[in-house]
Amino acid sequence: MEIIINGQNLTLDEVVAVARHGAKVVLDPKAAEKVKYCRAYVDKKVKEGAVIYGLTTGFGKFSDTLISEEDTKALQRNLIISHACAMGEPLPQDITRAAMLLRCNTLSRGHSGIRPETLNTLLAMLNAGVHPIIPEKGSLGASGDLAPLAHMVLVMIGEGHAEYQGEVLPGAQAMAKANIPTIELAAKEGLALINGTQIMTAIGCMVTYDAINTAKTADVIAAMTTEASCGIKKAFDHKIHDLRGHQGQKNTAKNMLALLEGSNLAFDKIPNKVQDAYSIRCIPQIHGASRDSLQYAYDVLSREINAVTDNPIIFPDEDEAISGGNFHGQPVALAMDFIGMAISELANVSERRLERLVNPQLSGLPAFLTPNGGVCSGFMITQYAAASMVSENKVYAHPACVDSIPSSANQEDHVSMGTTAARKARMILDNTQKVLSIELFAASQAVTFRGEEKLAPATKAVYDMIRQEVAPITDDVVMHYQMVKFDNMVKDGRVLAKAEAVCGKLL
Known about the structure:
Blueprint lengths: L1 E4 L6 H10 L2 E4 L1 H20 L23 H12 L3 E4 L2 H15 L8 H13 L2 E2 L2 E3 L8 H11 L4 E4 L2 E4 H7 L11 H6 L3 H31 L9 H7 L2 H14 L17 H4 L1 H22 L8 E3 L4 E3 L7 H29 L1 H4 L16 H17 L21 H33 L6 H11 L11 H13 L2 H10 L4
Parallel strand pairs: 1-2
Antiparallel strand pairs: 3-5, 4-6, 6-7, 8-9
Helix pairs in contact: 1-4, 1-9, 3-6, 4-5, 4-9, 9-11, 9-13, 9-14, 9-17, 11-13, 13-14, 14-16, 14-17, 16-17, 17-19, 18-20
């Protein structure tokens, strides 16, 4: 698979294809001409001695310090090595690859003033699998993701470290092994490479893509729990959801009916039962609201991955280099805080459904889903683990974007904390997937008491897949090992794929 970039129509699915599946990236020839044209303008302005931020001046508070033409290369190198201040664990490889792609894509718009050979170096690294080691912490999310992106550029100039063919090497050594020449940065190039939102956006793309699939998986798991609880599926009738009109709610209701089609455990009406508890009856309203939030984040990121986000932005035809603030990560920050809360809610309601399964006063099933209660504890502590992660999510869901802190001697006096918001959303997603996997574990156990042969065809396909790896629990076992298996099933998409193979693509 080959992805052609021009800075205008890259999609989130294509970002994932490059980041996770190694799709090759090619620069559109028309975009290459725009890059070349813009660079010629930058060279002209440097020779003329024009006063342009980041070309012939220092950075941040030093923007009023003029730089001579002979010092412009030193200025750009110093920018990179001084700004490589990130800390913490390295970003995962898929996020690093996504960030490299997004940086190439924004530079290909031809408004950043980078040389074609510099852009081609970053493209060559991406295609060859030279992955800079980028520590995850240290960005304020305004002036872009300066610190982490500087670590990406270190490798381009023969510094820093990179992973290549499974080995972490000094940057110069990794580039030599991949037969990619290192570069010497020219005027504007260091700033063009690090002044943007590509780290927060890369994290956001991976989180949003996975969260959309997790939301669909949550519907599958909720459907099995509904059956294990002998739920009333009339609550999912399109007539009541059409009256409210929220698309996520309507889609979730349709999913639930498709998943429960043919079930002999969930019916439109059940004798002596008028309605279910909210955690089952309100699945469309709860899951649907999260789904609408995910769509908002998807839309924001779809714009951001094709945005020019550095500074100054060059307009050669208008003979202008405009200092603005497109590097400010506020749009992404708000979306990531929003998505973090939305994902948290999927875990919140999942844990409540889990409680209904293990609590005999609510389920009518054996206490803690064990046939040998007393001697065995069964699923008792699985609910503790889920509750712990739900509570942890509540801490992570505190918005990062409202916590601005001034920097650069108060020149940069409002920052977005967008990268922090994106990193938090990623942690929330991991916890939520784990909580959902515990619910699925319990639901599959619960239906053994109801009769798995009564499941709907879609949920029965999921159940049969589960039983290939995990047998019903009769006596106590080390639950952790089983829980890890369920976590993997949720994360690798097997649960969703098995259900969709029977009932069709979920919305």
